[in-house]
């Protein structure tokens, strides 16, 4: 990823990592990510914990799925997303919208 892309990804990570310890956990998501709008929470299939865990799983490395997301894992995830986006400008707009940066 270009420097500009990395910067915006790191900005999103810092926003998610509310405790500031460099690892995003379920605790960090409380208050940042609203699980109550998730359709599986609304129909009673999942608890709030399950919604958070599933959300973390999408960033968590398949080799170390522990429900904790490090900056490295977060950057790796976005390196994959980034590969399919041509311009830095579009990538940054996408990140700003997704994370309300
Ligand atoms: Ca944290």
Automatic annotation (TrEMBL):
Residues 4-39, 47-84 form the EF-hand domain. InterPro entries: Ca-bind, EF-hand-dom_pair, EF_Hand_1_Ca_BS, EF_hand_dom. CDD domains: EFh. SUPFAM superfamilies: EF-hand (SSF47473). The keyword Metal-binding applies. PROSITE patterns: EF_HAND_1 (PS00018), EF_HAND_2 (PS50222). This is EF-hand domain-containing protein. The lineage of its organism: Eukaryota, Metazoa, Chordata, Craniata, Vertebrata.
């Amino acid at each position: 990823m270009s420097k500009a892309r990395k910067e915006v990804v790191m900005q999103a990570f810092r926003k998610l990592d509310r405790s500031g310890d460099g690892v995003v956990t379920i605790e960090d998501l409380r208050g940042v990510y609203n699980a109550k709008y998730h359709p599986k929470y609304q129909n009673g299939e999942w608890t709030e914990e399950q919604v958070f865990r599933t959300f973390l799983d999408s960033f968590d490395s398949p080799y170390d799925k522990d429900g904790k997301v490090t900056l490295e894992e977060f950057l790796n995830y976005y390196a994959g997303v980034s590969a399919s986006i041509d311009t830095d400008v579009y990538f940054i707009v996408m990140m700003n919208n997704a994370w309300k940066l």
